[in-house]
Design a protein that fits this description.
Radius of gyration: 24 Å
Shape: elongated
Strand content: 25-35%
Length: 326
């Protein structure tokens, strides 16, 4: 099974120079241990200074790590990796203090009262951070500091029923990726022949391959742009190479499912794909549902691991439909 590494590229058009924000993939345990402060709060105000730095003031609702203040101010320096906050919205924030080396003590000391955060950690609107909040609440209820907890206790006790999207080692098909592709091909070919399906790339400029653009599932419905009426010239061009076969608007299928720490798979879901029908791209469910029906016959998956410990996981499987052709 393929694992997905997520790299977020943020391009700045304010100047002639483009800057990329490259984010390291981390588990939630790593982020909790490395953050100076973790809290939920609502944005009260956003102010900017003459250098375009932003000062975001939060009314704190709950603290999971760090400061006990009722009001916390985050500073967003004028750079590309900033998280964009909106006044009145409530967020879960993973933040860090800024430090300077003291000339007097030769030790690192907090340089100012502000907190920094970025798009590279798990900061986000609270409604999209339910997984993180569940884990943080259980950690808080344990009464233990993250520094006092080893991974064995964390994953086999406190978080034993939690599912993880970011893991050190993703869940895999027992016989490997190549065997999984062959398994899908063999079990899909009768369905493909019966429905006269042939998957092919389109030369039309609107038919671009989709990619996962965020760590949060469900994936964005990036294929909505295909749901439009085409000109007759576009239709003729698209149908020219496929004759009597149906042409699919994408050859990428993304399937999300859970794998338990004991290797059982469940809760299969898919991203919508579209079929070209009389010049209009319409939603197609038959193909992904057939793929899922095949995957559900797999009785065991190798479970994911974090720090060498089997954990429940949320997996995202990418299937290139062209690999299912004859």
């Amino acid at each position: 099974m393929k694992s997905i590494s997520f790299i977020f590229l943020i391009i700045s058009f304010a100047t002639d120079v483009s800057f990329a924000c490259i984010c390291e993939k981390k588990t939630i345990e790593q982020e909790i241990r490395e953050s100076s402060i973790i809290f939920t709060g609502t944005v009260l105000s956003i102010e900017r200074d003459s250098t375009l730095n932003e000062y975001i003031t939060f009314n704190v609702a709950d603290i999971f790590k760090g400061s006990t203040r009722n009001t916390i101010i985050i500073i967003n320096y004028y750079q590309t990796c900033n998280y964009v906050f909106e006044k009145g919205k409530t967020y879960l924030v993973f933040g860090n203090n800024e430090y300077v080396l003291s000339k007097k003590t030769n030790k690192l000391e907090i340089s100012n009262p502000y907190i920094t955060t970025s798009i590279c950690n798990r900061t986000g609107e609270i409604e999209y951070r339910k997984r993180e909040l569940s884990k943080l609440n259980k950690l808080k209820a344990s009464g233990l500091n993250i520094k006092e907890i080893n991974s064995e206790k964390l994953y086999n006790d406190i978080w034993k029923d939690e599912f993880f999207l970011r893991t050190d080692k993703p869940s895999t098909y027992p016989l490997g990726d190549i065997s999984l592709k062959f398994f899908l091909y063999e079990n899909f070919k009768e369905f493909r022949k019966k429905n006269k399906l042939e998957f092919s790339y389109s030369n039309n400029h609107n038919n671009q391959k989709t990619t996962a653009s965020d760590i949060d599932f469900p994936l964005p419905d990036s294929l909505q742009r295909y749901k439009r009426t085409l000109s007759q010239a576009e239709i003729d061009s698209l149908l020219k190479d496929v004759e009597n076969h149906k042409l699919y608007s994408t050859t990428d299928l993304w399937i999300r499912f859970n794998v338990s720490r004991s290797g059982l798979a469940s809760n299969f879901q898919y991203e919508t794909i579209y079929t070209l029908d009389n010049g209009i791209y319409i939603e197609n469910t038959a193909i992904p549902e057939k793929i899922i029906s095949i995957l559900t016959t797999v009785t065991y998956w190798n479970p994911a691991e974090i720090n060498g410990i089997p954990v429940n996981s949320e997996e995202i499987l990418h299937i290139d439909l062209t690999e299912l052709n004859e």
